[in-house]
User: Fold this.
Amino acid sequence: MITILLRLVGRRGTSMPGLVASRVSPDLLFRLLSQLEQCVVVTGTNGKTTTSALLYSMLTDDEHPWLTNRGGANLLQGLLGALLPHVDGHGRLRVKRAVLEVDEATLPLITNRYHPTLIVVTNVVRDQLDRYGEVDGALAMLRSGLLYPGTILLTNADDPLAASLGWERELTYYYGMDECPVDEEPRNEVRDGAFCLICGRELQYERYIYGQLGYYYCFSGHFGRPAPHFGGKTDGSSELIVRERATDPRQEEFMVNAGAPGLYNDYNVLAAAATARLLGRSPRQIQAGAEHYEAPPGRMQTFPGSPERILALIKNPTGANSVLRTLESDERDKAVCFAINDADADGRDVSWLWDIDLERFVSAARCQRYVCAGTRALDMAVRLAYAGVDRQRIQIAEELPEALAMTSDLDVPVYVLSTYTALYPLGEQLRGAAR
Assistant:
């Protein structure tokens, strides 16, 4: 009933039903979770929503339905809100399998009382400093959520922080890129996992992929990139070759094409495919699921029209750099609209804007116009000016609709890069404009 009322008044209502239900019955979430036969939890800093959506598409079918929190509400009330529509009149779940995106700080709250079948960790990078503190705080949260030894862990071998979660832990699998495009010279990017967590010495890299991801090792021999059980091969297109070494002794390859652009999305596809294989799905079933994948709101979501607009979430330096790298690969002329808010859900501290490698993007991308919107529009405009953008090419919008109007006269694609609280209002406006 709460969900229906929220939809009638135009609210998304992904967390409110769960919040109200938890007030009435504080243990309801864990009573429902205990009814699940299989549960995959996807956590980490970047890529949780996309990986969860990809995995859900690969796993669910008419014979074996799964449920998921597709709206991305990944706190306790959001998880409960995702389960409630599947409860029958007797308080039992009709669907017994779930893919749940879970916030890093929420993970230990869940696993302290409920043990999922498998936990996927996408990466661990700096994010929302005012909420998590430095990256070691997020790493500690994740580590405390992985204490139960009976849960399978799948984590990113190319990220030294995420990979460290599997140290001396049984039932741990790794995924990573065997072959992928890399820059001839390293970018000026934030590398959060720069030091060995055992001896403190700086990690050495045979090659960087992006951010702190790459082929790394400790000079003292304490720690290095673990051999991935699932390797990926990509040439920069949306086609990913998965090399399986975990469940198939023949190490056969299979292709997955989810139409998700960007190297960072190749990692999301690889994580989802590896998870699906660990749960027994065949390569044919995985590809069939990938073909039905629909990008979640704001994850390189395309809105046709004139001009075409593409909406993408940015929330930290590593994620923003990954999106900008994808924009650079689009050789067309383009415009970019930044919508930067600083509400609680975005993170009050926007100093991360200065850790984005905008200088590289400005010099490489063919961008005709920059528009800045949101509560921190002026901060974004100053950052662009320091990156070398001529001030005549920077426009400031007082409201989000005005930002979109400032690009309506263009005949080039417009990339709209937004923090979380601006994402859904912009999505609604773009959907209306595309009709």
About this structure: Residues 1-13 have pLDDT under 50 and may be disordered. DSSP finds 16 helices and 17 strands in the chain. Residues 2-175+228-291 form a domain with the UDP-N-acetylmuramoyl-L-alanine:D-glutamate ligase fold (CATH 3.40.1190.10).
